[in-house]
């Protein structure tokens, strides 16, 4: 019963994350840009306290303009990094392991990223970019690799201490 609940919760968590991505994609272009600019402003504010950026760029406004696009791309990577972790976790807990889990997760994330970009064609002020799909896929791959590394480290550390009957559940 616990295993079924864990599998169910892993899929539910993944679906909730898909909804987060969808809701962010549903924002009109101006609202989305305002959100990323507010994040960029906070980053610039913090970094200006640590590093004197004014010696490189004359004004804070220029910094925000230059960094905003970069922040937006990093947001894609982070959103899909988390998605990659959640998707591969759901597949592995469902019994799909090894390369199959990796390939299925990559295909799933790639198709979701593609459909998300196509959906943005219908959102005012937004558009679809093939580069965003590739950035999303890169984020998903990074997430899946991080998951794999953590899983293997966990398995190596605890496999010798765990009863044989539970080892199959931790196998990545």
Care to describe what's here?
With 172 residues, the protein is an all-alpha fold. The chain has a domain at 2-29 and 79-170. It has helices at 2-25, 29-50, 60-93, 98-120, 130-158, 164-170.
List the helices and strands and how they pair.
Layout: H1 2-25, H2 29-50, H3 60-93, H4 98-120, H5 130-158, H6 164-170
Helix pairs in contact: 1-3, 1-4, 2-3, 3-4, 3-5, 4-5
Number of strands: 0
Distance between the termini: 21 Å
Unreliable spans: 164-170
Per the principal axes of the C-alpha atoms, what is the gross shape? globular
> Nearest-angstrom radius of gyration?
20 Å
User: Structural class, from helix and strand content?
Assistant: mainly alpha
How many helices does DSSP assign?
6
Order of helices and strands: HHHHHH
Strand percentage:
under 5%
In short:
The chain is mostly helical and 172 residues long.
Structural key phrases:
172 residues; 6 helices; transmembrane; mainly alpha; membrane; disordered C terminus; 0% strand; Phosphotransbutyrylase; globular
């Amino acid at each position: 019963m616990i295993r079924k609940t864990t599998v169910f919760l892993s899929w539910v968590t993944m679906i909730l994350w898909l909804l987060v991505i969808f809701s962010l994609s549903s924002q009109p272009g101006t609202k989305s840009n305002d959100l990323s600019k507010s994040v960029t402003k906070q980053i610039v504010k913090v970094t200006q306290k640590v590093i004197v950026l004014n010696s490189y760029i004359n004004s804070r406004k220029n910094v925000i303009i230059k960094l905003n696009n970069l922040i937006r791309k990093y947001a894609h990577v982070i959103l899909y990094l988390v998605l990659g972790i959640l998707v591969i976790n759901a597949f592995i807990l469902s019994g799909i392991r090894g390369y199959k889990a990796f390939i299925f997760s990559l295909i799933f994330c790639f198709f979701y990223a593609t459909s998300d970009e196509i959906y943005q064609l219908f959102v005012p002020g937004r558009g679809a970019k093939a580069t965003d799909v590739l950035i999303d896929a890169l984020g998903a791959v990074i997430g899946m690799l991080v998951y794999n590394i953590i899983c293997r480290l966990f398995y190596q550390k605890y496999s010798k201490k765990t009863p044989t009957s539970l080892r199959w559940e931790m196998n990545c």
